[in-house]
Specification:
Oligomer: homodimer
Number of helices of chain A: 9
Largest sheet of chain A: 2 strands, antiparallel
Order of helices and strands of chain A: HHEEHHHHHHH
CATH topology of one domain in chain A: Multidrug-efflux Transporter Regulator, Chain: A, Domain 2
CATH architecture of one domain in chain A: Orthogonal Bundle
Radius of gyration of chain A: 21 Å
Structural class of chain A: mainly alpha
Helix content of chain A: 55-70%
Shape of chain A: elongated
Largest interface: A-B, 88 and 89 residues
Chain lengths: ~210, ~210
DNA sequence: CTGAATAGATAGTTCCACTATCCGCTATAG
DNA sequence: CTATAGCGGATAGTGGAACTATCTATTCAG
């Protein structure tokens, strides 16, 4: 197919597709002549993936490119993929260094839930940073409600890995990890809001 | 205190504070003369709240302003607050209309979990949109894993409301709803990633 | 044959979240 | 008392991100 069909079937405007081609999110089509290229179903699927990641997924174009590059790597590596994906989802900023007390809070939380957290893992800092933001915003994390969040997170993570074991091709595993990490987060957030609204209705009526 | 002290204690640069003042996220200080104003602890707390919402919370300045405006309203209303907050967190885009099948999927999910979802609620569309994005990205939602996410979301939402019943002042309730919605989402996401990493370590070593 | 579409390059646009500069004034150190 | 650093408030400028428009030289479809 040509670019206009790709555009129609994906819902992405032609200029945007050209932009993604330039940025390397989407491989070029096969040139049949100097100004004609042919795209196939793979291109369409890839474009839909890009669209999902940058749209609902909320990734920047640069972050999406990094993530996709790992998927495309010769020897894809689950570790790399997780690292890149985690970085992509919410860029680590150094806006407010967490205190040692907050890091310790995270460590003890992890211990209570039986999590192994590498001391140098950026995740440790990241969680501590969110905790720091909660404190800054005037919320107390001392009364144990964070453990409830951790339990829910643990449930979801276990299930995520269950799902992965049911897949066969490496390609599918990689794609599922990426999409599951990026969109799963959005799904969980949206469902939480839905559950919250329902709970509010149940408790306080309409 | 004057603006420089506000800046030092909050970590926000003076020009940014001026920007927030202009944008109405932070109330003006009390003028003691035409070019001198006095700020107090309330200003500092408010600034820290703004910083948490726009920083780790990921809200745009406009979204933060809308949310804060509801908190500041004469007669604050929990419904308004939730509506505005939900809109602020992830702006509703019309990028890919969910299909009727996807909406139906969401409805039956809600029913299975005993959630009341108003037919006109934007949440319905929002969840369906995430589901649509998952489909577009090539993931199947038919095998029941979404129910696991819903269960986790339900747990968290119930607990969120438990926390609220333990608070007294309306002000505190409102602030907790906002911060809890915005930052709670980030917390849950970060914890999920941490749990995922730990689970990966448990299953595949290193 | 002709008009619409195409590949690829370059340049322009729009939005956002700040920054920088400027002015007239004021608090304060010496 | 002066010098000077800082202030409030207004206006203008900056830099990055994600497109969007335009251009040229083809080429395909009717």
């Amino acid at each position: 197919m040509r670019i206009s069909e790709l555009s129609q079937r994906s819902g992405v405007p032609v200029p945007s597709i050209k932009f993604y081609l330039r940025e390397g999110l989407l491989p070029r089509g096969e040139l049949t002549s100097p100004n004609q290229a042919r795209y196939d179903e793979d291109h369409l699927n890839r474009l839909r993936l890009v669209s999902a990641l940058t749209g609902v997924g909320g990734l920047s174009v640069a972050a999406a490119r990094d993530v996709l590059a790992v998927i495309d790597a010769e020897e894809p590596n689950l570790d790399d993929l997780m690292g890149v994906t985690l970085k992509a989802v919410h860029p680590i900023t150094t806006e407010n260094e967490p205190t040692d007390a907050e890091l310790a809070e995270v460590d003890s939380l992890a211990e209570r839930h039986g999590w192994y957290v590498h001391p140098d893992s950026p995740l440790r800092e990241e969680v501590a940073q969110v905790v720091a933001a909660l404190h800054q915003a005037g919320l107390d994390t001392g009364s144990g409600w964070v453990d409830g969040y951790a339990r829910a997170a643990d449930d979801v993570a276990r299930q995520d890995h269950e799902v992965l074991t049911g897949l066969d091709g490496l390609d599918e595993v990689l794609r599922t990890v990426v999409v599951g990490t990026v969109l799963g987060e959005r799904l969980l957030a949206a469902l939480r809001r839905m559950a919250q609204a329902s709970e509010a209705h149940r408790r306080y009526g309409v």
